[in-house]
Design goal:
Strand content of chain C: under 5%
Oligomer: heterotetramer
Number of helices of chain C: 3
Helix content of chain B: 55-70%
Order of helices and strands of chain C: HHH
Shape of chain C: flat
Strand content of chain B: under 5%
Number of domains of chain C: 1
Chains: A mainly alpha, B mainly alpha, C mainly alpha, D mainly alpha
Helix content of chain C: over 70%
Radius of gyration of chain B: 24 Å
Distance between the termini of chain B: 26 Å
Largest interface: B-D, 62 and 69 residues
Distance between the termini of chain C: 44 Å
Structural class of chain C: mainly alpha
Structural class of chain B: mainly alpha
Largest sheet of chain B: none
Largest sheet of chain C: none
Amino acid sequence: MNIAGQLPYILIAMMASLCIYAILFKSNLFKKMLAIFLLTDAVNLLYIVQGYRSGNSIPPIIPPGMDPSEFASLAVDPLAHYFVVTAVVIGLAEVATLTALTIYTYRHYGTIETRKIKELRG
Amino acid sequence: MSLKDSIIGISFVALMTAILIYAFLGYPEVGFVRPLGEFYLYNTFNFNEQGWWSASPNAVTGVLWDYRGYDTLYETMVFYVGIVAIALFFEKESSLRRTSGMTVIVRATTKLVFVFILTSAMAITIFSVKTPGGGFQGGSIMAIAYIAIIIALSRGFLPELRMDLSKAHLIKIFGLILIFSLTVIPVAYSLASGTVAYALQNQPKPWSEFGYPTFLGLYSLSGGMVIPIQVGELVHVGMGFTIMFLILTEREGKKELGGKRS
Amino acid sequence: MMELIVNLLLASCVMLTAAIVYTKDLLLAVVLSGAEGVMVAVIFYLLLAPDIALVQVAAGVGISTAFFIVGLRKLRRHEE
Amino acid sequence: MNVLFFQAPILAMLLALMGSFGCIIVGLFSGRRAVEWFTGILTAVSLVLSALAVVNVFFLDEPYVYMMGGWPPPVGIPYVIDRYSAPLALVVSAIFFATMVYSVRYIERDRDVKWYYSLRFLMQAGMYGLLFSGDMFHIFVMLELMGLSAILLVPFRKEVKASVEAGIKYGIYDILAISIYYLCTAMIFGMFGTMTVAEIAAKLGGYVSPFSGGIFANTAALPVIIALIVWSFTIGSAVVPQHFWLPDAHSMAPSSISAILSGLLVQVNIAVLARILFDGFAAGSYPGNEIGLHALLILGAISSVIGAAFMLVQSDIKRLIAYSTIANLGLIAMGFGLGTIQGASASYLHIINHAFVKAALFMIAGVFIHATGSREISSLKGISKVLPGTSLLYTIGTLAAIGFPPLSMFWSKLLLLFSVLSAGGSYQYVVVPMALTIVLESIAQIRLLAVIYSGEKRSVNCRPSYPVIASVGMMIGIIVITGLMPSLLFELGGLAASDLLNIDSYIDLVLKSLNYPP
């Protein structure tokens, strides 16, 4: 085990836990929404970090004339990049949905603090 | 924030971090590519292994619309749900009225910049098989052109560019129809010919003969169906963001809500 | 060297996240999240992911921040 | 192999996708009748297509893998069409068809129907995808599709304060669950280097894939990943202690949506969780991975008792039915948590039966609420004198829900009890919460029936129209007919559970789906 080599994982774990804390315990709906967005960012970082190749690496776009097997031994992981593209788009859709609902909650209740919204029974 | 909240917060974050770090301690050090990634890199533009290729030099684009295209199709639909969210909650019967009072120079400059941004969005999309980019990136940039006009000038400038809400909806759905028809054409081929072909199949394979044509002679155009489907994505995403911002920046009337404010 | 820069950027992302969670001013939180998005984009670029960096700049920073600000205009600026 | 049968499940899914934007075009150019006809025809065709898939898998051919884009499993996304997923997809299609017929008159006073039908179609496509998918990341995308459209349909009547609040509560927690699942996919990617469910199980057994290699991290971290996945899916399927969003969301949604949410959405979540735990993490055979099953068993036991106990104190008919959903999901989780083939087959049958019963109950509750204009149970007094037919249907549905022989849920509850008793060891003590749940639920439901049949004749606002009765009748008919054929049900459950629990055959099916080179 090597702490320095795993430092990115540890930092990402802290970021993800902070976001999960904010979603669960913060009372403000807008803050919860921001935390959801940042949690997606944290996991995106985890993917990209895992797909990185140290040393003399190149982006996953084949330069003209390069041999595929040489390219495969040089470039970084395209699969991880793919997952992140998908997740960013999905994150925006989540934000749009939650923004719409939050604004409507504010119009109905005049507040977006979940502590103060106690219309329904538990 | 009270003391009790702080203690709960710090202990929760510490606990959660400890659990995650415990999981990550068994992970390998950062800095190597897993074999599946190398498989995509090796095969994506390999003329010697044409049964396994996606004909796209950009491996991310190849994974995006060929190897895992079905994921991306539904990711597009998730984005569509996001547009529906805004449209369902805020769309009202309102028309965009043309604004007046801007000088000819402002109009001309804006149109010029607008055309420039639109062209670059188009380029990012079409050349995504060669360079970084793609339908989503291009669509976002196209939307930024519209959003900049909405925020910096006014919503009323959009009719000047022959754009309004229902037209944006129609163009967006046109993009979706393009994506959808490219998805079902292999299935329709399979039903018509009685052979096996799979949804969203791009290139012919030894076990399944259907394939979209690939143009490799024209230097930059390749990837079979990847480019047209990216154009569909560009239109869908660009118009989707435009619709969202058109609806959201609308001035709020006083009497719009039946419910009372408490 | 590059690992060091990436780790530093990641650490500042953690700090920014903590600040976003802590602050009571929602507009400040939005601005900070925009800054965080820029840092994430820089990390993506340094880790040789130009595709993702482009998505992150266009969507993760530009459009989402605009979205948050437009949404926040219809809400109250401060947390209670 | 017939090509139409081969493509049928995917065609059903693509039709649902087409419907989602087709509705908007039809809505832009013509009126709501056209939208309804369009939706109805597409839903009916997808019902036929998923029936074809079931026929194919059971009678004509073996289970098979549909390789999306033509790519074999670790490279592309496999759709596993087997005897576990195909019948559930047929249930999804049937309930969507019934609620479609029901919606025509039920939401006729609402505006924006085109968005309503569009979101319904997307939810349907998401459910098909979740049931068939054999890829962890695809499950994430589909959870997002199903979840977001459900979150938007709950506050569809956005003028109602409480429904918007239920929507945002459901939204925050469901999206939290999906985000945690996304974190899990990243950890799985780092550990296994693949997203295919079957390959994860194979690699735990020592397999080295020609495409994606072996395992890259210490498997000591696996219990953490499994715990996070169970956490995420138990939020989605409302197992105690994460059940609090369900009564609000399911009671505040329009009744046609409540039927889908309560009958399908939560149970699709738990079916997918069973798929991941049994086939992905090889819960039965790999040591250390039973943690997920134990969590399901314990949480399920607590969940069922609490859900049934809360049923006793409800005064709102839809909340009562929603709490009954929590109790029944607890029973299903307990059945899967046993880890035996009897338990899995009992839970599987309970999922199917409960789906039809709960959909029927919510649909009739919607009729009652329209008729009396109130959601209170006390205001239902005397309704049986005015609406005798509807009340009779409701009685049959309730009797099925409490497990009255020979209706369908009797058999699955019986099988659940048997499976617990035959599991041996300390597992058999689980029979206590199970029996307690069944008794408490029966008391609450029978009290509701007693209210309906008491009181004097009263006036009602409106009577149910023909399509509404037809759709409810379809559901009740299915309940009665399946209850009369227990041997067929048992056989179906046994086949599905063997497909679910037999990890080796699942791995063979998925990883050897491409016979090239032969």
